[in-house]
């Protein structure tokens, strides 16, 4: 018997990988048509728009479950068994933080960049800086970590509020966009690789690019920055 005193211990399958939850989405079929760069649209503008919208939507989802994400319930920024993300302090030393503190820092870190005209310009003059794509990769990596924490730690709350189709659809869109524009490395995906592979088997990434680009760490923050 699994997990019995005399039998081998078998790790329980995460709730987000169980049916029918893993097959619950708002969009049926491939997400390819909504991630491709529209004709006559500058790639920098397309990246900026989508990064902002993913950030806004993820922030809203976190706002729904943040009352359950407390220092007592989430003493570390966990993304599954054996994986805790750490934060770099002003001296670039890793710190273990409660998940709500880590996420608060990340959301503020991203918000500061999105509202910085030198990084995310809203006027045509000057265009996007050369480092813009690397900045987007750094932001994307941190957003993925929040997705991973919610899936591994708070997915039961997502289910309780009947939001699994919405959350899965947002995550599929997020991952498909990252594949199309090379925003995440393979190693970044490990905490949710099984979920991504399941979505792939369902055909949700069909016709999308699966290439990856080498990722550099996000720009240094004066006071604190995420651990890479």
TrEMBL record:
Keywords: Metal-binding, Zinc. Zn(2+) binds at residues 69, 74, 149, 154. The keyword tRNA processing does not apply. Residues 206-228 are annotated as: Disordered. Pfam families: Mob1_phocein. Residues 214-228 have a biased composition (Low complexity). SUPFAM superfamilies: Mob1/phocein. It comes from the Eukaryota. InterPro entries: MOB_kinase_act_fam, MOB_kinase_act_sf. PANTHER family: MPS ONE BINDER KINASE ACTIVATOR-LIKE MOB. This is Mob1/phocein. It comes from Sphaerosporella brunnea. The lineage of its organism: Eukaryota, Fungi, Dikarya, Ascomycota, Pezizomycotina.
